[in-house]
């Protein structure tokens, strides 16, 4: 099984487990669903990667950060449940599972599963989104829309689209349901690694908000800002964010 196939398979199966948690704990408090979902998905991904790629290191949101990854040539960067708030709300489908592989300085494989939508996007080939509308749609957090996104909306004469997890936001751009995702409120490598790998496979622009490249597997996994957009909007977006 190739790294691309493995990323897709693991993200999809972790998503199935999370759907099971939703069913099993439908009557439980939201916090319990969050905790059980995070743990079950993390435990599955860690066990599967240990079996399938025993020589590789792993950086997971839900695991202890092992510094051995900084000496490793290959590191899997995973978010077992991106969008725990949305996952805990049983009527929402804007949450995701992220599985990405970093090797020798680059993201070389990645998958974003949207379990409640029955979709997994995975490298190496992702269909490009359909043609953009006249007014670009800027996807933002439904609870914490950043000021920078509002500035981009104003500059591009666009509209804001509220959505949950980072993975779901990037997937919306890939799907053609949005055109720009700009974030400056603080994220970590696991929030964007798999979505960025998928976005690049779809031909989208990806960068920091100052236009510099996104870098992964650094000592500090904080990666606070991000731009993912259709390439025709990149210059205009970066003119606002830089």
Number of domains: 2
CATH superfamily of the largest domain: Fructose-1,6-Bisphosphatase, subunit A, domain 1
CATH topology of the largest domain: Fructose-1,6-Bisphosphatase, Chain A, domain 1
What's the order of the H and E elements?
HHEEHEEEEHEHEHEEH
Helix content: 25-40%
Helix tally equals 7
Number of strands: 10
Question: Are there runs of 5+ residues with pLDDT below 50, and where?
Answer: none
Catalytic activity: adenosine 3',5'-bisphosphate + H2O = AMP + phosphate
Keywords: Magnesium, Metal-binding
Pfam family, one: Inositol_P
Organism: Candidatus Mycolicibacterium alkanivorans
Could you walk me through the main structural features you see in this protein, from its secondary elements to its overall organization?
The chain is α/β, with parallel strands linked by helices and 242 residues long. The chain has 2 domains: 3-121, Fructose-1,6-Bisphosphatase, subunit A, domain 1 (Fructose-1,6-Bisphosphatase, Chain A, domain 1); 137-241, D-Maltodextrin-Binding Protein, domain 2 (3-Layer(aba) Sandwich). It is built from 7 helices and 10 strands. The chain has helices at residues 3-24, 30-52, 84-88, 147-156, 166-175, 189-201, 231-241; strands spanning 57-60, 74-82, 96-103, 106-114, 119-122, 137-141, 159-163, 180-183, 205-207, 226-229. The protein has a 5-stranded mixed beta sheet, with helices on both faces. Strands 7-6-8-10-9 form a 5-stranded mixed beta sheet, sandwiched between helices. A hairpin with a 4-residue loop joins β4 and β5 (119-122). The radius of gyration is 17 Å and the shape is globular. The mean pLDDT is 95. Pfam families: Inositol_P. This is 3'(2'),5-bisphosphonucleoside 3'(2')-phosphohydrolase. It catalyses: adenosine 3',5'-bisphosphate + H2O = AMP + phosphate. Keywords: Magnesium, Metal-binding.
């Amino acid at each position: 099984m190739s790294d691309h196939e493995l990323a897709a398979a693991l993200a999809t199966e972790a998503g199935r487990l999370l759907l099971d948690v939703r069913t099993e704990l439908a009557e439980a408090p939201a916090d319990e669903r969050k905790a059980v979902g995070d743990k079950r998905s993390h435990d599955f991904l860690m066990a599967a990667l240990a079996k399938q790629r025993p020589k590789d290191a792993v950086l997971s949101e839900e695991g202890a950060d092992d510094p051995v990854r900084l000496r490793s040539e290959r590191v899997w960067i995973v978010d077992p449940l991106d969008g725990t708030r949305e996952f805990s709300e049983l009527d929402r489908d804007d949450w995701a599972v992220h599985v990405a592989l970093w090797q020798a300085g680059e993201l070389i494989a990645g998958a974003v599963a949207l379990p409640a939508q029955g979709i997994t996007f995975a490298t190496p080939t992702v269909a490009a989104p359909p043609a953009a509308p006249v007014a670009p749609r800027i996807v933002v957090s439904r609870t914490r829309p950043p000021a920078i996104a509002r500035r981009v909306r104003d500059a591009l004469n666009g509209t804001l689209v509220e959505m949950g997890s980072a993975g779901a936001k990037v997937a919306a751009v890939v799907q053609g349901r949005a055109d720009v995702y700009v974030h400056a409120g603080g994220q970590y490598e696991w929030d964007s690694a798999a979505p960025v790998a998928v976005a690049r496979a779809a031909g989208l622009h990806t960068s920091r908000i100052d236009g510099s490249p996104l870098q992964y597997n650094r000592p500090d996994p904080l990666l606070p800002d991000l731009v993912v957009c259709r390439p025709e909007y990149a210059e205009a977006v970066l003119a606002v964010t830089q």
